[in-house]
Amino acid sequence: MLSLNNVSVAYQKTQAVQNVTFELGVGQIGCLLGPSGCGKTSLLRAVAGFEKIAEGQISLRQQLVSAKHSHVEPEKRRVAVVFQDYALFPHLTVAQNIAFGLHEYTRAQKFQRVTELLMLVGLPGYERRYPHALSGGQQQRVALARAMAAKPDLLLLDEPFSSLDAELRDDLAKELRVILKHENTTALMVTHDQNEAFAMADVIGVMDQGRLMQWTDAYALYHRPVNRFVASFVGDGVFLSATIDNNIKLNSGLGVFPINPESGFKQGDKVVFLVRPDDIIHDDESETLAKVVDRSFQGSHILYQLELQHVGHARVLCLALSHHDHQLNELIGIRLDLEHLIVFKDNGDVA
Ligand SMILES: Nc1ncnc2c1ncn2[C@@H]1O[C@H](COP(=O)(O)OP(=O)(O)OP(=O)(O)O)[C@@H](O)[C@H]1O
């Protein structure tokens, strides 16, 4: 449905997007995830046709819509965009807003589509309201209904929930996924919030400094990040130093762990490996002790920051059930439960 091949976007002095390649199939939901300034909005705008591209090709339905010397205008792409600020027409009712782009529909067809969409976005009976009489979340649902009304081939969403509060954001992200799947809409969303990406997307693209680092599902991003940037940006965790010794020997004294023999490391190589909070198991029986240096109560769990009592005094995170209630400076037993070791070359920046 959507295919990007080696796409670059440049402004006068800034190379905003560099050599991005990915594909999105019919009905798939993709999400571009990355920190502020990584180029995700520029890429979305290029797909919408608001930005021309400097290199590469963008195709929709196997038709070229953007290349260095050719550019199909946004209104000819059968693409709809939902912006973060809702952008509803204030002088039109909810029904008029949603029906705005349905030029070829009869009155009866418009009525039917508006009713159907309001039901889908959880606002049945809101036809005659005006935008100012709706909450932020409700306005964004109407904006979504309006964008989906004419059944676009591709729906683009630019941080659609960023002006809503955190709880509403999570709920809406989950609801939006159900709505998009119900209509079999292909969608590409931009966000800097990994929870939103996890809740929404079939496939996630992590971007850093204009480049697409990895394009895969949430599970693979978390468990098989391709580099340190992705490993740090997606999920919590810390890197610990180690040296390759056929197996990996950990200088933090946490044990010896086998690595994938095809990883290409040789004996004596300095490496770092990723330890997620759920890899550190609190175990009173264990002789490996760590000191509680910080704790944050999260209801069912407590997230501890622990200082290892061995070489380097490295700090790790540990997610423990909240009835394991330990105080600052207490020494607690831990063990490492690492199934797949995520190992990268050491750049010398880990203690
Ligand atoms: N219209 C523009 N003119 C010049 N430079 C721009 C323009 N829009 C974006 N940039 C620059 O391009 C780079 C990528 O910006 P972009 O907005 O695509 O990133 P982003 O990941 O979407 O960031 P944010 O989450 O803050 O919106 C940044 O360095 C930004 O300053």
Automatic annotation (TrEMBL):
Keyword flag Membrane: yes
Family annotation (PROSITE patterns): ABC_TRANSPORTER_1, ABC_TRANSPORTER_2
Species name: Paraglaciecola psychrophila 170
GO biological process: quaternary ammonium group transport
Lineage of the organism: Bacteria, Pseudomonadati, Pseudomonadota, Gammaproteobacteria, Alteromonadales
Protein name per its UniProtKB record: ABC transporter-like protein
All copies of domain ABC transporter, residue ranges: 2-234
SUPFAM superfamilies given in the database record: MOP-like, P-loop containing nucleoside triphosphate hydrolases
Ranges annotated as spanning the membrane: none
Gene Ontology terms: cellular component: ATP-binding cassette (ABC) transporter complex
InterPro entries for this protein: AAA+_ATPase (IPR003593), ABC_SmlMolc_Importer (IPR050093), ABC_transporter-like_ATP-bd (IPR003439), ABC_transporter-like_CS (IPR017871), ABC_transpr_FbpC (IPR015853), Mo/tungstate-bd_C_term_dom (IPR008995), P-loop_NTPase (IPR027417), Transp-assoc_OB_typ2 (IPR013611)
SMART domains reported for this sequence: AAA (SM00382)
A matching Pfam family: TOBE_2
Keywords: ATP-binding, Cell membrane, Ion transport, Iron, Iron transport, Membrane, Nucleotide-binding, Transport
GO MF terms, alphabetically ordered: ABC-type ferric iron transporter activity; ATP binding; ATP hydrolysis activity
Entry keyword Membrane: yes
Domain of life: Bacteria
